């Protein structure tokens, strides 16, 4: 029961990680630049994401521009696009596989098949967490290096946006869920290897009883 409850908890973490991963991939606020200017009424917030750049005005207007050209983008944005999409795909596969392999479900067949499915889903979650952690770390490093660069004007400097923090948290959830799924299956298999089922044989008793009958026959 404890293992089933732990797997269910890991499944909830993985669901939160999947939704957060998809949200972080689609959100336009990977880096934010707030230009207040001389008047709060004319404040402008510029946001840049993986797929679009958006501008929000204090008057309530909001406009976005899609990034159509892939080759014109910096390398870290291209890499972030690829790895975040892979993270979403792997995490979705992990949800489908672990649904079959969890102990609280009636899918997947016997215990060994469910253990293998659960372990495969955990590996998918771990890979998805790694693919989600790499672009967010790289993106944050680029933002910080540009922010500390004295040659870049203040109007062109940005700060990490909410999508970056969402990506970090989602990657952590996926990593934790993957480790829980893999460790729960590994412990069960390891216990079966260390403590194999004992077989009860009584050859000596049977031989002694047969020997006793033989002696009585000769007497």
From TrEMBL:
Compartment(s) where it occurs, according to its Swiss-Prot or TrEMBL record: Cell junction, Tight junction; Cell membrane
Molecular functions per Gene Ontology: structural molecule activity
Keyword field: Cell junction, Cell membrane, Membrane, Signal, Tight junction, Transmembrane, Transmembrane helix
InterPro entries assigned to the protein according to its UniProt record, in alphabetical order: Claudin, Claudin_CS, PMP22/EMP/MP20/Claudin
TM stretches of this protein: 84-105, 117-139, 163-186
Bilayer topology annotation: Multi-pass membrane protein
Pfam families with a match to the protein in the record: PMP22_Claudin
GO CC annotation: bicellular tight junction; plasma membrane
Superkingdom of this protein's organism: Eukaryota
Predominant subcellular localization, coarse grouping: other
Annotated signal sequence range: 1-24
PANTHER family: CLAUDIN
Family: Belongs to the claudin family.
Protein function: Claudins function as major constituents of the tight junction complexes that regulate the permeability of epithelia.
Listed name of the protein: Claudin
Organism: Malurus elegans (Red-winged fairywren)
